[in-house]
Amino acid sequence: MVDFEWYRSFISIYKHSSVSEAARTRMMTQPAMSQHLASLEAKVGEPLSFGSGRRMSFSGRS
User: Fold this and answer.
1) Burial tier of 39 (Cβ tally within 10 Å: 0-12, 13-18, 19+)
2) What is the pLDDT at residue 53?
3) C-alpha to C-alpha distances, 35 to 27, 30, 40, 45, 53, nearest whole angstrom
4) What is the dihedral of CA 26, 56, 35, 9, to 10 degrees?
5) Is the confidence at residue 40, as pLDDT, over 90?
6) What pLDDT sits at residue 21?
7) What is the phi-psi region of residue 27: left when phi exceeds 0, alpha when psi lies from -120 to 50, beta otherwise?
8) Is 43 or 57 the better-scoring residue by pLDDT?
9) Other CB atoms closer than 10 Å to residue 33's CB: what's the count?
10) Where are the beta strands (DSSP E) in the chain?
11) Higher-pLDDT residue of 35, 59
12) What is the rounded distance in angstroms from the CA atom of residue 58 to the CA atom of residue 62?
């Protein structure tokens, strides 16, 4: 079962291109935010993003 908080976290990471910044805006720890992303990726069955230093990149995003 998918937890809708995982989607909220993913949207925040996408918006900020940073797990740390997304965690701050959602008042979560960075490890908890990363776990949400990992859980959603496991459910979907493929990576939704990839890290590039301190910034995140997403498939199909310019």
Assistant:
1) middle
2) 54
3) 15, 9, 8, 15, 18
4) 30
5) yes
6) 95
7) left
8) 43
9) 23
10) 49-52, 55-58
11) 35
12) 8
